Every structure is written in C-alpha cells, then in structure tokens.
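Second attempt. The first submission of Choline transporter-like protein had a stray character pasted in from the spreadsheet, which I only caught after the job came back as garbage. Lesson logged: always re-copy from the clean sequence file. Corrected sequence (107 aa) follows.
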Amino acid sequence: MLEKFMRFLNTDAYIMIAVHGQSFLPAAKEAFFFLLRNVVRVAVLDKVADYLLMIGKLGFTLNTAMIKVCIIRGYKEFKSIAGKVLERRSECWGRFEFYWDMSFDRF
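This time the job returned cleanly.
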C-alpha cells in the first residue's frame, strides 16, 4: 500500500518538475499537498476511471462473443463480412511477404 502511494506520489512529483522546473523534493512536497487538497477529486476520478474501463472491457468482450456466435451459427451476413476480411488480410499478407522477401534479396 505504501509502495503504491509512493509510486503515485513519485509520478505526480515528476509532473510538477516538468511543469514548474523545481527540484525533486520541493516538487514532491507540492504534489503531496496538492493531492491532500484534492483527495475527494482524486478518489472520485479513480473510481470513475475504473468503472469506465470495466464497461469498455465488458462491451468489447460481449461484442466479440456475439460476433463469434453469429459466425459459428452461420448467419450469411457475418459470413460474407468475415470472408471479405479474411480475403483482404491474405491479400495484404501476400503483398507484405513479397516486399519482405524482395528487401532481403538485395543483401
């Protein structure tokens, strides 16, 4: 717990150094008192950021699972989209291999 706080304070101290051009100890002191003045804002912002990250991860996971289920069940719309994506990827990979091989042929 102390190590996490010190790492957090250290980051803020370096930010203060970059903004104000102070040495480390005065910047760390200023960062510490800044955090104390804004402790409620820091806590709320931390919780909001955690919540948004959780919603983003959950949304990404659910969308990926839904697309996979649609592909496995064989919906034609998703098969055609997946086919186009895979065809395009193989086409791009072929071009990449061509240029990759050509770049090493010179040496």
